[in-house]
Every structure is written in C-alpha cells, then in structure tokens.
Design brief:
With 269 residues, this protein is of the alpha+beta class. It is 53% helix and 14% strand. The protein has an eight-stranded mixed β-sheet, sandwiched between helices. Helix 7 runs parallel beside helix 9, helix 8 (113-127) crosses helix 9 (133-143) and helix 11 (170-183) packs antiparallel against helix 13 (251-268).
C-alpha cells in the first residue's frame, strides 16, 4: 500500500514506473498487490523514480521487518513449549511497562498452574511440539515473578467473555477467577474488564501484548508476529487505549469477576 501511495503521489502510472526502470510492465502491479516481494534494489529504485530517495532506507527497513517478524510456530516450537515460554519471559523481563489485551483467554502472567496446563496442552496438541508440558507450565509460572519486581508497570484489559469461555473444566476456571481477584489488587497493576453490555468502539479481533511502546506481540493458531515498526506499534497503542477506555477497574472490575464466578457456580450445582 505504501509503495502504491508513493507512486501515485509522484503522479506516475504503473506502466510509467516500470518503463523507467526497465521492468516487465506487470512487475509494479505484482509488488503493489503483494504477489511479488521487491528486492532492496527495487525499493531504492522505486523511491528514486518517485522523487523521494530519502525514503529508501525506511522502505528497506519495513521489508526486513516483514521478512523476520512472522515466525512459524511449528519451527519455533521444535525446541519445546518451555523454550518458547522462556523466550517470552525474556521480553517481559526487560520491559518496564507491559500492556496486554485478551479477548478469549486469561493473560499468561495471571494464570494459575492448572489453567496454564490446559492452555499449553492445547498448543502441544495443535503444534505437535516435543512434550515438555510440565516444564512449560513451570516456565510460565516462573514468568510471573516479574509482577513483583520493582519499577514495573502492568496494564491488563480482558473482555468479560474471557472470564466465561469454557476453555477448561469448571473447577479449574473457578480457581482462575479467584486468582484474578487477588492479583487485581497489586499496586503496580491496572486490571480492567470490559463488560458484556458495553458497546465497543473497535472490534476486539485478537489479543496482543505491547512492550515499552516499542514491540507488539501477536499470536494466532499457526504463527507469531513480532511488530517493531513505529507506525504499526502506534496503531496498536491507539487500539489498546480505546479498548482500555471502556473497561472497568477496581471494585467494578472485581464485581464482573464475581459475576462470572457466580454464574460458574450456578452451572456446577
């Protein structure tokens, strides 16, 4: 999209740009529509032809980021789930401020060992990684030590749905909700819950982590994204702020957790 805008701002057609560089006429279209990955030399030529040679370095940096921040889980998890947990813990350990939005699950830093076991076992089944579940659960619990270190700030926002989804047995979820009640009172933590009845200003498409306004981590079924481009990080910060604005905190947030606990208890009777 950025390359197309750059060409249009220069008032060049795709054919004119291609002819100026001696490229096949279809090359510009393929690059702009994501069907062909440009080389660094292509990006330098593109910026030069559009009269913006100073943008070449930025375009190349974007290309390198795109090539490296999409990490396939199956390759990454060959070393086991525990290694992945420790790697994520390293990012948490060096960050002074962490924001996390979750729309389906309870945040990893807030999980009980029992809840964590179900979440990690699901990843194990899906990825076919080496079975080191006990070690992985221990590693996730070790990550939580960062919550008690001085000088760290945490801001968690969960949807009420994340407190209700049956992603583990009821008794495990009950223990998890009780744990949230305790952790929500930590002095260095903002714990917010978005209630069902609130209208969202933006769709909660997926969960994500933001580390020190510099790195965003997003995970899906098959891959992990590590986003470092300032513009994209800024977009995620804006999304987080808009979601955080509609969350409830303190006693009102704990009241929602209590509501989920009551609903769970009623279903277990």
């Amino acid at each position: 999209m950025r390359l197309r805008e750059l060409r249009r701002d220069a008032r060049l057609t795709a054919r004119q740009l291609a002819e100026a560089q001696g490229w096949d006429p279809s090359k510009v279209s393929k690059i702009e529509n994501g069907r062909q990955t440009p080389s660094e030399a292509n990006l330098e030529a593109w910026a030069e032809a559009c009269g913006r040679p100073e943008l070449a370095a930025e375009l190349i940096a974007s290309l390198r980021t795109l090539e490296t921040h999409y990490i396939q889980f199956r390759r990454k998890l060959r070393a086991g789930l525990a290694a992945n947990q420790r790697a994520f813990g390293e990012m948490e350990a060096v960050a002074s401020a962490i924001r996390n939005f979750e729309n389906v699950f309870v945040s990893g830093l807030l999980q009980t060992p029992e809840y964590a076991r179900y979440r990690l076992a699901e990843s194990l089944d899906r990825s076919g990684a080496r079975d080191d579940l006990d070690e992985a659960v221990a590693a996730r619990m070790q990550r939580q030590q960062v919550l008690y270190r001085k000088g760290r700030k945490f801001h968690f926002v969960l949807t009420e749905a994340a407190l209700r989804y049956r992603v583990c047995p009821p008794e495990v979820m009950a223990g998890q909700l009780d744990r949230l009640m305790t952790l929500s009172t930590l002095p260095n933590m903002r714990f917010g819950v978005i209630p069902f009845e609130v209208q969202y200003p933006i769709g909660p498409l997926h969960g994500f982590w933001i580390f020190d306004d510099q790195l965003v981590s997003v995970e899906n079924f098959t891959a992990a994204l590590r986003i470092t481009q300032p513009g994209e990080v800024a977009d995620y910060l804006q999304v987080f702020d808009r979601l955080a604005e509609i969350a409830l905190y303190g006693s009102p947030a704990r009241a929602i957790v209590t509501r989920a606990l009551d609903h769970l208890a009623a279903s277990m009777d």
